[in-house]
Structure formats: structure tokens, C-alpha cells
Request: fold
Amino acid sequence: MSYQNQPFSPGGFQVMPPAIKTIILANVAVFLLQVLLQNSPLGGLITAAGALWPVASANQDGLSFQIWQPVTYMFLHGSFGHLFFNMFALWIFGAELENYWGTRQFNLYYFVCGIGAAFINLLTTVGDPYPTVGASGAIYGVLLAFGMMFPDRYIFLYFLFPIKAKYFVAGYAFIEFLSGLGSRTMGSGSNIAHFAHLGGMLVGFVYITIRRQGWSLPQWPKRPKDSRKQAGQATLHHIGKSGAAATQEEEIDAILDKISTQGYESLTAEEKRKLLKAGGK
Reply:
């Protein structure tokens, strides 16, 4: 059975990896600030400055698009339910992606999808009077990535009906397209940014396609091995080990370093075999 076909379990290495944890905490903190200050002038300022306002907005308060809003809008939410379902989906689908890609690459992907979704949403809302808030564009990008990375994983729809991830994602994209098209042609007044969702998926698809074509992406310099001790990370000690055992542990150390900087997917088949073999001892 291939890795992609194994039953889905959030977080192959960490149930709550660093990027997921930080993004969730930041979103919760901003939402609490919104709630605490909602009846004060400062609370209104948070939404006025941080929400994604359409270009040439037709609102009566003179609020307009600002260059920082494609980032800040991702940390604002309209209700507790909006926040909860976004963060729950981020954890369910994003944890394994972060473990698979590595924290740096996941962070890059998440913000590329969220910012890309913002600009696509701006193209479809010119002159509208209402702003867009929420991490949904980035979340839909994460959902798309999960479907592309693990296409044959089974997801239990409503916790009852198994469906492969690739069909689940395709279904969601189709529903969003029809919903977005309907809201624009019939003037339904829906407050859901369907084209931001589709934008996140589109940007995510382009990003992953570029990676699969072998184009290089920015990489952070690899830390020296000794820096793991300063960062408080676990390390393997070779005191009293035979030469062969010490060499094997050095290889595992190097593999773990590679996962930390480049993600699990960067490992060769031989490196994966050695890691699994060491884990079974």
C-alpha cells in the first residue's frame, strides 16, 4: 500500500505542527480582539483597516482598498462559526501537508494561496460596497493541495460516507463555481466570497504544478548540526556505539535534518526505507 493510500490521520509526525499552531493561535487572538472591542471605535477601525475592500468600493463611508489588506483580511472573521470551521479545516487537511512538505514550504504555500485569492477576489468585486474577511481562500488552497498530494485518501463525508480526496476536492470546486456564478448573475446577495475560494484553489494548483515541473523554490540555509542543541531539538548520541551503529545514527540524523528543512517529500526512496527501518527498532 502506498503512502497516499493509507488511512488519513492528521499529522503524520506532529498532530499540531508549528505553522498550523501559529496560524490558529493568531486567528483566535485577532477574533477575541474583534469581540472585545466590537462596541468601541477601535473595534470598527480593525475591520475598516484590515478587511479586504473592493477596488472603487461603493460604500458610503469612503473605505477603500489598501495594499496590506490581502494579508490582514486572512486574520479577520465575521463570526465564531466562520472562524471555527476555517481553523478546523486548516488542522484536518493542513497538518499532514506541513509534516509532508516542511514548515517553511507550508507557510509559503498558505500565504501565496491566501494573497492570490485576495487579488482574484478583487477582480470580481470591483465597485461592490462590502469587504471580504476570513482565511477561506488560503484554506481552500490547502484543501486543493491535500487532494493533489493524497488523491486516493478516503475522507468520510459527514463522518459516514467515504469518498476519495480527489473527488471530494473536485466536488467542492464545482459547487463553489456554481455558487459564485449564481450569486453574480442572479444578485442573490450572498455574503460568501465564492470566487475567493476558487482563487485560493486556482493559485494552489498553479503553485503545485510549477513545483512538479521541477522549478526550484526559495530554500532557507541549512542549519549546522550543532544548532539543534541550541534550538532544543532532540538529537541522537553516539557514546558507546560501535562504528556501524554510530554511522547509521548519523544517517538518520541527516535524514531528520532534511525533513526539517525541506519536508518529507524531499526524501529519496532509500532514505524513506532507512527511516522506517530505524523507527521499527
Observations:
- Residues 176 and 198 are 7 Å apart (CA to CA).
- The first strand starts at residue 154 and ends at 157.
